[in-house]
User: Which sequence fits this backbone?
């Protein structure tokens, strides 16, 4: 019997992709040296690299009730009260792509911070080489703990001079699911942008409600950015969620990119689609400006 029904939709989308040529990809050792994660698959040699010019960026230790959580932040240098944007990562840990996204947001004027909320597992996810090894770790993260960790990240950013009254969240893959979950949790959130976040979860006792089940509880406007060729998140699932949000009179918009697979924004992976990625990034900026996160 296949175990596929127990796979999360984000992992199905990650693992069932079109064949690709190895040309133009880093060697495994080069990818690790550059800060990427082997479990995420081959790494494109021309992955986007954003510098720290005009930024203050680096590692963070975020105070929690039960200790400190590692993270990575980037903010415009010398700017008072920048808006705070949380960056919710994929299942692969806090690796170079997520750090680069954080720097890209800082270039837009945000105090962006990516918390490493799987840290309690005592293993560096970026060092794991196989997805089957990752899944029991990331799937055991309770939603209640995740949401609390995000709240603590906001409090940390505020303590460092960020303007938490202009709070946004952006997330990719599993982090896209996190965006929907946090939008149903946080009354302080101004807006979210979910890149191909899963909408229906397999049974899991630590995940009480999937995003679809939370349609009536959304507290902030969210932009959903999805790929028409995502093998894990069918367009019909996105449309059903869109209808549920509309029925509950919740503010959300969706854009589905023709021919784009899961992970179309992940510029380090074979799934990258430059046109869809660029448009989605532009849509995110407009959404955040519309709802007062970005100036």
Assistant:
């Amino acid at each position: 019997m296949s175990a596929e029904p127990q796979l999360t939709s984000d992992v199905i989308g990650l693992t069932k992709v079109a064949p690709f040529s190895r040309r133009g990809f880093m060697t495994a050792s080069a990818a690790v040296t550059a800060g990427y994660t082997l479990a995420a698959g081959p790494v494109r040699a021309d992955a986007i690299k954003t510098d720290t010019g005009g930024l203050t960026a680096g590692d963070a230790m975020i105070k929690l009730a039960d200790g400190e959580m590692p993270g990575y932040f980037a903010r415009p240098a010398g700017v008072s009260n920048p808006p705070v944007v949380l960056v919710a990562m994929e299942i692969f840990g806090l690796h170079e792509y997520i750090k680069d996204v954080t720097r890209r947001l800082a270039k837009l004027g945000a105090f962006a911070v990516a918390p490493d909320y799987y840290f309690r597992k005592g293993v560096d996810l970026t060092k794991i080489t196989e997805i089957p090894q990752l899944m029991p770790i990331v799937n055991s993260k309770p939603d209640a703990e995740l949401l609390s960790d995000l709240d603590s990240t906001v409090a940390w950013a505020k303590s460092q001079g960020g303007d938490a009254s202009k709070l946004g969240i952006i997330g990719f893959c599993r982090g896209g699911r996190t965006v929907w979950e946090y939008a149903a949790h946080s009354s302080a959130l101004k807006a979210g942008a979910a890149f191909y976040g899963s909408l229906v979860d397999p049974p899991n006792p630590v995940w009480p409600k999937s995003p679809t089940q939370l349609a009536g509880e959304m507290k902030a406007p969210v932009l959903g950015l999805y790929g028409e060729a995502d093998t894990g998140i069918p367009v019909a699932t996105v449309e059903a969620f869109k209808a549920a949000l509309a029925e509950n009179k919740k503010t959300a918009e969706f854009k589905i990119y023709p021919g784009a697979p899961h992970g179309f924004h992940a510029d380090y992976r074979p799934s990258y689609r430059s046109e869809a990625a660029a448009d989605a990034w532009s849509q995110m900026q407009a959404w955040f400006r519309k709802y007062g996160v970005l100036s």
